[in-house]
């Protein structure tokens, strides 16, 4: 037994120091009838760590299993002559083999003899296997130590790089915040956000953000909600954010950059938005009323048909605080050289048409006479408004001379 251990120790030291061992001819393991058994297997996991599987007295493998799992060349390290079993190892497999071919058996025995591969008995085999397994485990423990060290260095580098990246990104975001407004939100594409106030889907790529509260976005439209006489009304709209909107990379970047501003401006509700809009709308109406207390002409014009019949039209906006009953529109027509044209049936130089209401406060009325109301004897080419007479539902009336008429757009 002592001699066997001395011989084995010499063999193993030779194996790991110089590699001078007997290699099994690979062809002997290719035969499908050969019976290979795994005693132990070292296999590398996904993270590079080698793990050992113990198969006890041996797990039978076919040649396909063997070549799919084994790494490196095959080497004999002992021979059980009584049971005709040859024990071998590769870089990661420890196992044994029962030759079925006399040719294979003669080739292997010749190799065993030439390389002084020790013979074992049932008593000495456990010690031999234990020594081989220990040598293999020591080898792979060392490999794993190197792997763990590599993993540690990679993890440390990753953490360091992540911290540096986060610091760099924070600096970039800080510079960005100095030159940009958190209320400006730009998206990669237009999303149809339905406003809960106006019940309209707004398709926009840019939003003027007022508040972001939970999953609700309060925003202004790209264009004013209303505009009269150069005065704009801008109201808050609010929509529930869709999953697609929240998953947009530009929105995620926006939230990352402006997280503090968003957090400081999230105490808002639908009721708050409604109150804000009501105040804004009333202020807007007051401004329009201060400019045009009796209303203003939004548009007007006329046509002259082939019979020289005059067909006028006009749209009047009621910015007063009373309901309009009638709007009387007085006009004169002129020829190309500025002479006033006579209206032959009225026997007058002034004609008029009446727009019948009602026209509610802060609303408009439009009237179009597509049949001639007056006929001119001259070659009319221009119309001028003489005056407007506005009659309200309460019976009062207001005459607005031409010099005091306010126009939204000059003709």
Provide a compact summary of the structure.
With 411 residues, this protein is of the alpha+beta class.
Task: Describe this protein's structure.
32% of the residues lie in helices and 34% in strands. The strands form five sheets. It has a five-stranded antiparallel sheet with strand order 2-1-5-4-3. The termini are far apart.
Rg of Cα set: 49 Å
Strand residue content: 25-35%
Proportion of helical residues:
25-40%
Strand order, main sheet: write it out.
Answer: 2-1-5-4-3
- What profile does the largest beta sheet have? 5 strands, antiparallel
Q: Indicate the structural class.
A: alpha+beta
Mean of residue pLDDT values = 84
Q: Which term fits the overall shape?
A: rod-shaped
Low-confidence stretches: 1-21, 25-32
- Could you state the order of secondary-structure elements as H and E? HEEHEEEHHEEEEEEHHHHEEEEEEEE
Distance between the amino and carboxyl termini: 121 Å
Number of helices: 8
List how many beta strands DSSP finds: 19
Features:
411 residues; alpha+beta; five-stranded antiparallel β-sheet; four-stranded antiparallel β-sheet; 8 helices; rod-shaped; disordered N terminus
């Amino acid at each position: 037994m002592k001699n066997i251990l001395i011989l084995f120790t010499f063999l193993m030291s030779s194996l790991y120091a110089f590699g001078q061992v007997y290699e099994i001819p690979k062809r002997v393991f290719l035969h499908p009838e050969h019976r290979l058994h795994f005693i132990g297997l070292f296999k590398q996991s996904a993270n590079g760590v080698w793990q050992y599987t113990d198969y006890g007295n041996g797990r039978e493998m076919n040649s396909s299993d063997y070549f799919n799992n084994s790494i490196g060349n095959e080497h004999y390290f002992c021979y059980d002559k009584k049971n005709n079993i040859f024990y071998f190892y590769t870089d990661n497999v420890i196992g044994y083999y029962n030759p079925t071919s006399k040719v294979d058996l003669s080739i292997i025995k010749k190799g065993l003899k030439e390389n002084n591969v020790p013979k074992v008995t049932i008593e000495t085999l456990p010690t031999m296997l234990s020594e081989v397994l220990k040598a293999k485990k020591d080898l792979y423990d060392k490999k794993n130590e190197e792997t763990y060290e590599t993993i540690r260095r990679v993890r440390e580098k990753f953490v360091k790089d992540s911290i540096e990246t986060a610091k760099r990104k924070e600096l970039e975001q800080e510079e960005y915040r100095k030159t940009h407004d958190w209320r400006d939100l730009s998206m990669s594409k237009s999303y149809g956000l339905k406003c809960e106030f106006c019940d309209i889907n707004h398709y926009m790529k840019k939003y003027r953000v007022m508040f972001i509260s939970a999953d609700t976005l309060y925003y202004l439209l790209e264009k004013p909600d209303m505009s009269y006489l150069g005065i704009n009304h801008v109201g808050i709209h609010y929509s529930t954010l869709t999953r697609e909107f929240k998953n947009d990379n530009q929105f995620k970047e926006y939230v990352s950059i402006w997280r503090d501003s968003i957090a400081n401006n999230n105490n808002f509700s639908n009721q708050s938005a409604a109150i804000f809009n009501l105040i804004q709308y009333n202020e807007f109406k007051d401004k329009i009323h201060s400019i045009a207390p009796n209303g203003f002409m939004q548009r007007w014009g006329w046509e002259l048909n082939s019979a020289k019949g005059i067909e006028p039209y006009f749209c009047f906006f009621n910015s007063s605080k009373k309901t309009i009953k009638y709007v009387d529109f007085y006009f004169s027509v002129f020829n190309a050289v500025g002479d006033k044209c006579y209206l032959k049936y009225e026997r007058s130089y002034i004609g008029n048409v009446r727009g019948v209401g009602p026209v509610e406060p802060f609303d408009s009325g439009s009237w179009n006479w597509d049949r001639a109301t007056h006929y001119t004897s001259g070659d009319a080419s221009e119309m001028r408004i003489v005056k407007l007479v506005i009659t309200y539902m309460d019976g009062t009336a207001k005459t607005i001379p031409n010099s005091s008429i306010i126009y939204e757009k000059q003709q």
